[in-house]
Inverse folding.
């Protein structure tokens, strides 16, 4: 019994692409999973023509990726799909960790109020993909189902592809190729590119169970529970009364045996501890690797998501970091395709996202080493931490049942303009921007919903009237640059300025989170990261920072 | 000064954006130090480590408190 009916997307014959082959397209995306779809939607939002190939004709089978983190939701908001996903998903912020019979640790992902999105939502991957496919099509992306790339060659100014379809093979060329074809990435293999890292010697049983249960929408994690001795177990709530349960099995477990319902059901019964009825929706056994490509750019091919990097699932850093890849890639690609930035800008995509991938790999590897200790002494320390955590705050901080996905602070990015003025807080150049409640034209709204897709300059002022005519003339001039900068004025009580967006920092949280005073200016990248900041608005410095953030310096 | 039981790990010169990072940095270094050692070697390493840290702390009253807490419920 299932809760979901898989859509079958219509196949269309490639006659139009076979005519006068090879045709040349500006942008081809391979892979219509969550990350490839995010790339397609983002590219359409920026006016780029998009052709997408996927070798299948439906969404993800089984729920697979489940947790979408706050930053991913903010990206999805920018792509215009945040609301339907959050409406359907299960929001949560609290995680609880148990050791044997006792609770030892509890965390809250968003301890501060005043953010539009929760720390996480849980949602089956198939729902996410279905919503994203609809959005991509609505924006005019050309998605071809059952088109399988079987050959690829990097040329100096394009990539040539050979594509297999039920109606034969054809060749096609792309000025730029985005590779989103997943962990096994056939294109990565066809290009002979390596991906290096660690394989973990452990197996996990993942079961999606349909049942009526009144457990709260929280993440529950057990170390060595009475119902599954010496191993770990994870419980998550998804939509439609579907629950995700994840059992650590150890390396010696036989995957084929463990997958059989007669072996899965007793484990679930022992865990649930009562006779409540449940149905198995999906069962899988997985192992994982922590690895990444050395460079996410290979000539005209740009790698995103699992094709470029893979992490352990503890921390939900897979799909979430994939969304952050495309968040950063597409605006850069747009500038390069429009001839407004040199190709070197795409090398900074690789530099910044490999930096972020290393942080994700480090955190997920640390979680894995804590959850599945590799030696006796490692397990002794792990259990000592869990024992001490029951009484002592310092040890609770060390408990690591998964450091859940948060975006990297791109502090090493070559695109940042280093601070010349002094600021408190975390909104340093390279920081993913904090959200805050604001008002716009008297309506409650959110800061991040006002930002993105273009360069913007947040200028803080005492009042709208305090922005003088000379400043307004400078605003106009910046907005007319080849790489336009849109001014956004933030005041405590809002106000009106002709031709300029004015936001009211009605709760003072923007000023607090950004350590802003009247005169403070933040240059915001199209992916909602801080590019530069100053205590005073100075157009030449803004222009220099835009040039630096686009490799035009 | 009583035994510090609140999170207290940090590295001079390091900027942390996440509260779990300094503790995780330490824990990783601790486990890494034991890499490829036999159980017996690990035990010896732990003994040396405790002696080194005890001398660094210096205050025997603090050490007695830690000794008592560590002994509890073992």
């Amino acid at each position: 019994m299932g809760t979901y009916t898989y859509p079958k997307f219509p196949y269309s014959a490639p006659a139009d692409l076979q005519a006068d082959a090879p045709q040349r397209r500006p942008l081809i995306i391979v892979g219509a999973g969550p990350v490839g779809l995010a790339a397609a939607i983002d590219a359409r939002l920026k006016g780029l023509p998009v052709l997408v190939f996927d070798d299948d004709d439906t969404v993800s089978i089984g729920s697979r990726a489940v947790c979408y983190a706050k930053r991913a939701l903010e990206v999805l908001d920018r792509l215009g799909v945040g609301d339907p996903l959050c409406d359907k998903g299960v929001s949560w912020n609290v995680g609880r960790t148990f050791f044997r019979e006792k609770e030892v640790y509890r965390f809250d992902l968003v301890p501060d109020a005043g953010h539009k999105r929760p720390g996480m939502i849980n949602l089956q991957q198939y729902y996410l993909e279905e919503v994203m496919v609809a959005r991509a099509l609505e924006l005019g992306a050309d998605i071809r189902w059952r088109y399988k790339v079987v050959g690829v060659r990097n040329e100096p100014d394009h990539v040539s592809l050979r594509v297999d379809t039920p109606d034969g093979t054809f060749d096609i060329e792309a000025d730029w190729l985005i590779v989103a074809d997943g962990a096994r990435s056939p294109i990565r293999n066809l290009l002979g590119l390596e991906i290096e890292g660690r394989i973990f010697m452990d197996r996990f049983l993942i079961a999606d169970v349909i049942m009526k249960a009144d457990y709260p929408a929280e993440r529950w994690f057990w170390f060595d529970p009475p119902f599954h001795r010496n191993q770990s177990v994870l419980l998550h709530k998804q939509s439609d009364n579907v629950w995700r349960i994840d059992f650590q099995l150890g390396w010696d477990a036989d995957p084929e045996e463990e997958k059989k319902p007669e072996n899965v059901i007793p484990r679930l019964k022992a865990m649930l501890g009562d006779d409540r009825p449940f149905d198995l929706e999906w069962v899988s056994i997985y192992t994982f690797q922590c690895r990444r490509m050395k460079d996410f750019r290979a000539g005209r091919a740009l790698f995103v998501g699992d094709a470029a990097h893979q992490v352990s699932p503890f921390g939900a850093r897979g799909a979430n970091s994939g969304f952050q890849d495309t968040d950063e890639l597409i605006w850069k690609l747009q500038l390069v395709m429009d001839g407004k930035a040199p190709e070197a800008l795409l090398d900074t995509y690789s530099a910044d996202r490999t930096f972020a991938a290393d942080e994700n790999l480090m955190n997920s590897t640390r979680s894995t080493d804590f959850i599945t200790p590799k030696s006796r002494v490692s397990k002794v320390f792990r259990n000592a931490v869990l024992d001490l955590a029951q009484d002592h705050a310092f040890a609770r901080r060390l408990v690591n049942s998964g450091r859940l996905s948060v975006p990297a602070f791109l502090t090493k990015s070559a695109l940042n303009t280093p601070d010349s003025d002094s600021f408190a807080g975390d909104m340093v150049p390279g920081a993913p921007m904090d959200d805050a409640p604001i008002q716009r034209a008297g309506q409650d709204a959110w800061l991040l919903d006002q930002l993105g897709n273009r360069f913007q300059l947040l200028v803080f002022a005492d009042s709208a009237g305090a922005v003088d005519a000379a400043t307004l003339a400078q605003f106009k001039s910046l907005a007319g640059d080849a790489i336009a900068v849109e001014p956004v004025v933030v005041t405590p009580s809002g106000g009106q300025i002709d031709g300029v967006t004015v936001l009211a920092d009605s709760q003072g949280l923007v000023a607090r989170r950004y350590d802003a005073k009247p005169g403070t200016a933040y240059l915001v990248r199209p992916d909602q990261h801080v590019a530069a900041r100053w205590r005073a608005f100075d157009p030449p410095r803004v222009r220099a920072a835009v040039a630096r953030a686009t490799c035009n310096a | 000064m009583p035994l510090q039981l609140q999170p207290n790990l940090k590295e001079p010169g390091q900027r942390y954006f996440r509260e779990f990072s300094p503790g995780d940095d330490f824990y990783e270094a601790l486990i890494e130090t034991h890499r490829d050692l036999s159980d017996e070697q690990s035990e010896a390493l732990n003994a040396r480590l405790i002696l080194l840290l005890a001398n660094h702390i210096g205050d025997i009253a603090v050490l007695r408190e830690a000794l008592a807490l560590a002994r509890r419920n073992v």
